[in-house]
Amino acid sequence: DDATVDDGYGTLSGDCGVLDGAELGSDLARLFRNAINFGANAYDPTLLGDGAREVLDEGNLGGSSLESEAIAFEVLDRCEAAVLLKTEAEIVYQDSGGKKTDLLVEIQGETVGVSVTRAFHFPPEEPYTEAEAESLLSGKLDDVLLSADNASAADAWERSMLHVIAYDADY
Questions:
Q1: Which end of the chain, C or N, has fewer beta carbons within 10 A?
Q2: What digits encode the pLDDT tens for the residues 52-111?
Q3: CA atoms of 171 and 168, how far apart (whole Å)
């Protein structure tokens, strides 16, 4: 469903309200596109919703992806009424050295493991190539499946999601 959602920080547009029980129970891979536009204002994490701010407060296991994870949750919360169950550091795994996911959420009563990645390179004005996209997505999609297999029984999920944050529509 192509929608525009204005309630909250930034304007969301694109596929919103599309994840129902049938969609989440399906074995088919799907692609949904949406965008969040913060307008001319500088990014201000204090204006994000409670769940996104919790992601920021809890932190992650390292790297520079924390703000991307918070924005991914903001989109899922506002578009799909997602409930944050656990952040990256709270999810329990069988092998602590194995692949991990960024967020554990509930959507329509289903537990979903959400991995977040960014499609970006420097300088951002230069085209993002198909080869770059293929390399990023093939590695991340493999990792999504490995992290689901690595989850403890208590934190297991049946449906995984790769949430890609892109620099702009061309990316």
A1: N
A2: 999 999 988 887 889 999 999 999 999 999 999 999 999 999 999 999 999 999 999 999
A3: 5
